[in-house]
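Entry:
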Amino acid sequence: MRIIFAGTPEFAATALERIVGAGHEVVLVLTQPDRPAGRGMKLQASAVKQVALKHNMALAQPRSLRLDGKYPEDAQRAQQAIVLAQADAMVVAAYGLILPQWALDAPRLGCLNIHASLLPRWRGAAPIHRAIEAGDAQTGVTIMQMDAGLDTGDMLLLASVPIEVTDTTATLHDRLAALGADLIVQALSDAQAGKLQARQQPEAGVTYAHKIEKHEAALDWRMTAPTLDQRIRAFNPFPGATLQVAGEVVKVWRACVESGEPVKASANASAGLVLQADAHGVKVACGSGVLCLTELQRAGGKRLSAADFLRGFELPVGTLLDAHPDAIHSNAQKDPA
């Protein structure tokens, strides 16, 4: 089929490669404008743009698709390209721009979205992060017929995967990207054969995966150890969970929930108190339970195992980790849904 593809990050690039590999003709690629990134803040092409250039695909990078918005010239040029493409379908994956009604209506079969959750749970911008943060046992990918709402369209295909207790957003992202790529190829094949069956999303169970904000990364030791472990994994690799000690911010990349003697020792300990610090990790009393920090990073330094970190950073038993000024306590011991 003739496909328009709209997407930006690696999650979308994985799907684009699979669509090409399945033999579909990608007649136009839409992706976000190049953005400054890295230490030199040089302009960098999105992952999707890199795939498009590799395959010599027609490419557009409008700043907006709103004809009445801030960049009407961009939108008009994109509209002309989309109309001229005469596509059978548009595949959308983590594009980052809102598609107006004219764009939704342009392809013969409309727009199919690859969404990284089991809708209607975790509609919105950060479904992978929020599923881990909430402690969900499973998540997955939904192929959805897009409409004007926020991830409210009819469901076409779904597939689920378990969330492992060691999963971070990075590891779960990669599994879901591969699953989404497989699922969209199946959806296109079914659409070509006229076999796609759409069904409405149920009204029960709707949650919203709000965009991750940097201030959320601050660890609040009044939370339970399992909640903090989930947040650390959810915010790896972005924005990275943080603690403060003696005014210095330290990132925490990996941790685990402790059991046994450290938990008994924490019964009357203040939240944020260091109970043990050795090669096995930094064990910290929480609002309930104990969290063992196993991978940490100082500002400007590398990610280090607890053993290596402690060689250059003293954290004696009895240290009380600072209450981070941005710590958010409203979600403590609650499902962030």
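The two ends are 38 Å apart (CA to CA).
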